[in-house]
Amino acid sequence: MARIAFVGCGYVASFYLASLPNYPQLDLAGVYDQQTDRAARIAARHKVRHFHSLDEILNDPGISILVNLTNPRSHYEVSRAALEAGKHVYSEKPLAMSMHQASELVELARSRKLIITSAPCSVLGETAQTLWKAIRNGRVGKVRVIYAEMDDGMIPKMSYSKWLSGDGIPWPHKDEFEIGCTLEHAGYLLTWLAAFFGPAKTVTAYSSCLMPDKLPAEKLDPPNAPDFTVACIEYVSGPVARLTCSILAPRDHSLRIIGDEGVLSIKECWDYGSPVLLHTRTRLADIGETYPLIGRLFSLGLERVPLVKKPSFRYRVRGSSRMDFSRGVADVADAITQCRDCRISAEVSLHVNELMLAITDGMKSGKPYEMTTTISKQMDPMDWAR
Question: Helix and strand tally (H, E) in the chain?
Answer without folding.
Answer: 13, 15
